[in-house]
Amino acid sequence: MPGRGGEIVGVEVYRNDVVVIRKGEAPNTMDVQRGDIWQFSRKSRQRLAFIAANTPIEFLTMITLTYPRNFPSDGLLVKGHLRKFLYELRRDWTVPHYLWFLEFQARGAPHFHILVDHALPRTRDGTRALRWRVAASWYRIVGSKDERHLAAGTSVERIRKVNGAARYAVKYCAKMYQKTVAPNYRNVGRFWGYSHGVVPEPTASLRCTEDDIR
């Protein structure tokens, strides 16, 4: 459109959105960041909401990971803990697809929410066992040594609503007060990320001009 960028050369149709492509531009579907990241930018929020709304993956469960009373203030160490946990998800629990988010509690501690395409077991005992495995894994990875953290430092819950993952991502983007980074926290890094296969592909691509879509 006039005054909004370059010449329109096409559109791409996705599950829930239509993206207008302008000359010299690519669709804004990837979480590309340059330089040091110190805030959850508007463009990053838009990319996250787009991916969550249009991914072909059906996320069935949400895992939450928190830290004990004593927590690290270096994002490199925090993301290292996350990578180890995600590795175990892929290796031991055969979870191929996930979408994770970073937030900060009022006390300044980082915590993660992870959406996964792995359903909770149908039995109560099976669900209880999975929740214990998550708690024990995270407790070990962060070197907690706090029994209270082992009991209450994680949660695993079923995503019950249709498009629940997309709704949660939009809600996450709106909670900017939980994106405030503590003054002594360094190396923040990305606020969210995903596994291979989560990024949506267009269901149709059309070449057109501005006159065609008026």
Search tags:
single chain, 214 residues, alpha+beta, five-stranded antiparallel sheet, three-stranded antiparallel sheet, 20% strand
User: How large, in whole angstroms, is the Cα Rg?
Assistant: 19 Å
Strand order of the largest sheet: 6-3-5-4-7
- Structural class comes to alpha+beta
Strand content: 15-25%
Report the average pLDDT across residues: 84
- Specify the overall morphology: globular
As residue ranges, the low-confidence spans are: 28-35
| Helical coverage, percent range | 25-40%
Q: End-to-end distance, in Å? A: 9 Å
Question: What would your notes on this structure say?
Answer:
The protein is an alpha+beta fold and about 210 residues long. It has 5 helices and 8 strands; from the N terminus they run ββαβαββααβαββ. The strands form 2 sheets. A 5-stranded antiparallel β-sheet has the order 6-3-5-4-7. α1 packs antiparallel against α5. The protein is globular, with a radius of gyration of 19 Å. About 25% of the residues are buried.
Short description:
With 214 residues, the chain is an alpha+beta fold. Helix content is 31%, strand content 20%. It has five helices and eight strands, in the order ββαβαββααβαββ.
Secondary-structure map:
Blueprint (H helix, E strand, L loop, with lengths): L7 E6 L4 E5 L19 H13 L6 E5 L9 H18 L5 E7 L5 E7 L7 H18 L5 H6 L1 E5 L5 H11 L17 E3 L9 E4 L7
Helix pairs in contact: 1-5
